[in-house]
Design a protein that fits this description.
The chain is an alpha+beta fold. It folds into 3 domains: 190 residues, Histidine kinase-like ATPase, C-terminal domain (Heat Shock Protein 90, 2-Layer Sandwich), CATH 3.30.565; 127 residues, 2-Layer Sandwich (Ribosomal Protein S5, domain 2); 263 residues, formyl-coa transferase, domain 3 (2-Layer Sandwich), CATH 3.30.1540. The chain contains 19 helices and 23 strands. Strands 1, 2, 3, 4, 5, 6, 7, 8 and 9 form a 9-stranded mixed β-sheet that branches. Strands 10-11-14-12-13 form a 5-stranded mixed β-sheet, with helices on both faces. A 4-stranded antiparallel β-sheet has the order 17-18-19-23. The longest helix has 19 residues. The protein starts with 7 loop residues before the first helix and ends with a helix. The structure holds adenosine-5'-diphosphate and magnesium ion. The site of adenosine-5'-diphosphate has 22 residues, from helix 2 and helix 4. Adenosine-5'-diphosphate (ADP) binds next to helix 2 and helix 4.
């Protein structure tokens, strides 16, 4: 056996395997270089999915002749100020992209510095460097990679259809563009434009939102809230989609650390945690988040493509994300994202919260204390599922009484006027009507109430007259047993009952006459599903959401007027009541103006 050092050409090809996975990686590396070079406009051409040609041209700082010759060498970079790898403020720092791309394609670079009369061009063919020659290149740099992977046929075989590779490349540019609204990005396939994002000036946050809605569509801008938070020098900014703007997959979550797009498990997990209880576990929110930390607090040198990062204090970053998002979303309590989709009902919109929620919430609470609504002091009782609910004890105010009193504060969700199909409540507001899904609304209220009770201490329990025995498989029983103490803390007593069954003796009093076996089955399913990576709090939230769903007023139950009004008033006073825990809206609103439009009166 003879040990020998690998020739450079082979070393570069091996390194290229890490950096250049597919055409999109070339595009990403080259566009990052252009941003690092201070470009204000970047033009990308992708031919045949990047196989035939990838060209990236910018108006950045350009390179001098010697720098150009060095730039294509391995580990040559202009970007590492000191040698500790501790303060990285640019995309690049490894000096690997150009030599790696050069190793697997035919690379040519033309560049001119801003203050120079002439520019320079250099070709590298499958790793073999030519001579630098004078070039008529305009200010800036153009890098062209042709015949990608011609030297590594194995890699070529793994490429997908041209359209797929092109899409990945465009997405790579979009991700970078999200973090840099001040730079213009243009992508074409040689014939057609694929992406056109002009540079945006002016207020940074405004420019960012405009850039994002250009990329993600106008829905995002309409249904997202700005987030801003700071903790120990780590800052969080960006936009979080309302829970109703949810998706089946998490690909609409875009994360940036110090302006660098990352796919980081810690950060995705934090987003999941923040939306816990606002969305079912198989739905994902949309979000674009920017984490900024001092360069020494984050290590980007974890992965060759720098897609992962490591934070010095990961728990702090996670906590910052969860609390900032929660706070931002709580401010949108009554806001729902989706207007109804039927064309005629397109006018049915969710009212933005700013109009009334902030100033009116305290007044809505004042109203809670007024004796004409006894149900409000203990608002759950009137619409409790219990068949024996003593509705007679809740006097219905004489018709018109509430509306007649000019001293009464404006009620954002209005006064209940009717119940339709035993499912929907219609309320009249000062300038329109509100349609409430009673099940969705009640579920949300129950959930918030359970949370409050839990925060205040151990919730009241009620013993079951006949303890319920539920048959389950051993995996689920074990999962429930392992959490028995946690369940007891929230008022639910579950024990093993021989082989293949558990017995439930007590449930939280709040749940009333809930169907215990269905609830326990759901809880067990959820525990085996993704118990492991959830924190205790997240798990509790999940349990609470599940319990709330089982407890809620089913569609189909007839409500009295006072029960309906109690529900509306409690919604006004409860955070997050605009969506049920599955992210669906709990109510929609139609203004008089919109009604008039529907009838052609305007
Ligand atoms: P890195 O970006 O990690 O430094 P690269 O191999 O991507 O490594 O680039 C090597 C060097 O080439 C960079 O440090 C930079 O000095 C120079 N360079 C690359 N692309 C450009 C560009 N578009 N404009 C100006 N200089 C560039
Ligand atoms: Mg680079």
């Amino acid at each position: 056996m003879i040990v020998r050092k690998l020739p450079d050409s082979v070393v570069n090809r091996i390194a290229a395997g890490e950096v250049v996975e597919r055409p999109a990686s070339v595009v990403k590396e080259l566009v990052e270089n252009s941003i690092d070079a201070g470009a204000s406009a970047i033009q990308v051409v992708i031919r045949d999915g990047g196989r035939a040609l990838i060209s990236v041209a910018d108006d950045g700082c350009g390179m001098a002749r010697d720098d150009l010759c060095l730039a294509v060498e391995r580990h040559a970079t202009s970007k590492l100020a000191d040698e500790t790898l501790s303060r990285i403020g640019t995309f690049g720092f490894r000096g690997e992209a150009l030599p790696s791309i050069a190793a697997v394609s035919r690379l040519s670079i033309a560049t001119r510095q801003r203050d120079q009369d002439s520019g320079w061009a250099l070709d590298v063919d499958g790793g073999h460097k030519g001579e630098a020659k004078p070039s008529g290149q305009a200010d800036g740099t153009r890098v062209e990679a042709r015949d990608l992977f011609f030297a590594t046929p194995a890699r070529l075989k793994f490429l997908k259809a041209a359209a797929t590779e092109t899409r990945h490349a465009v997405e790579a540019v979009q991700r970078l563009a999200m973090a840099h609204p001040e730079v213009g990005f243009f992508v074409g396939d040689g014939d057609r434009p694929l992406l056109n994002l002009p540079a945006l000036r002016g207020d940074a946050e405004d420019a960012r939102l405009r850039r994002l809605s250009k990329i993600l569509g106008p829905d995002f801008a309409r249904s997202a809230v700005a987030v801003a938070g700071e903790r120990d020098g780590v800052r969080l900014g960006g936009f979080a989609g309302l829970p109703t703007l949810n998706r089946r997959v998490a690909t609409m979550q875009f994360l940036f650390v110090n302006g660098r797009p990352v796919r980081d498990r810690l950060l995705y997990g934090a987003i999941r945690g923040a939306y816990q209880g606002l969305l079912p576990s198989d739905r994902h929110p949309m979000a674009v988040l920017f984490v900024d930390a001092a360069p020494e607090d984050v290590d980007v040198n974890v992965h060759p493509t720098k897609a992962e990062v490591r934070f010095r204090d990961a728990a702090l970053v996670r906590g910052l994300i969860v609390s900032t998002l929660r706070h931002a979303l709580a401010g949108t309590a009554q806001r729902t994202a989706v207007p109804v989709s039927m064309p005629a009902a397109a006018a049915v919109t969710a009212r933005p919260p700013a109009d009334w929620r902030a100033p009116l919430a305290p007044r809505a609470r004042d109203r809670v204390a007024t004796p004409s609504f006894p149900g409000l002091r203990e608002p759950l009782a009137p619409y409790d599922l219990a068949p024996s609910a003593p509705t007679a004890d809740w006097p219905v105010p004489p018709p018109g009484e509430e509306a007649a009193d000019p001293e009464q504060p404006v009620l954002p969700l209005g006064l209940a006027r009717a119940q339709l199909h035993s499912t929907y409540i219609i309320a009249e507001t000062a300038d329109g009507i509100v349609l409430v899904d009673q099940h969705a609304a009640h579920e949300r209220l129950t959930q918030e109430r359970l949370k409050r009770e839990l925060a205040a201490g151990v919730p009241a329990r009620q013993g079951l007259l006949i303890p319920e025995v539920i048959e389950l498989d051993e995996g689920r029983i074990a999962a429930l047993e392992a959490r028995a103490a946690e369940f007891e803390a929230i008022g639910m007593v579950i024990e093993r009952f021989g082989a293949g069954a558990v017995i439930v003796r007590e449930v939280p009093a709040l749940l009333g006459t809930v169907e215990v076996s269905a609830l326990i089955r759901d809880l067990a399913d959820e525990l085996v599903d993704d118990d492991a990576h959830l924190s205790l709090n997240e798990r509790l939230e999940k349990v609470i959401a599940t319990m709330a769903c089982h407890h809620s007023v089913r569609a189909g139950r007839t409500l009295s007027v006072s029960e309906m009004n109690a529900l509306l008033r409690e919604m006004e006073a409860t955070p997050f009541s605009g969506q049920c825990s599955h992210g669906r809206p709990t109510y929609v609103e139609l203004s008089l103006a919109e009604i008039e439009k529907l009838f052609g009166r305007r």
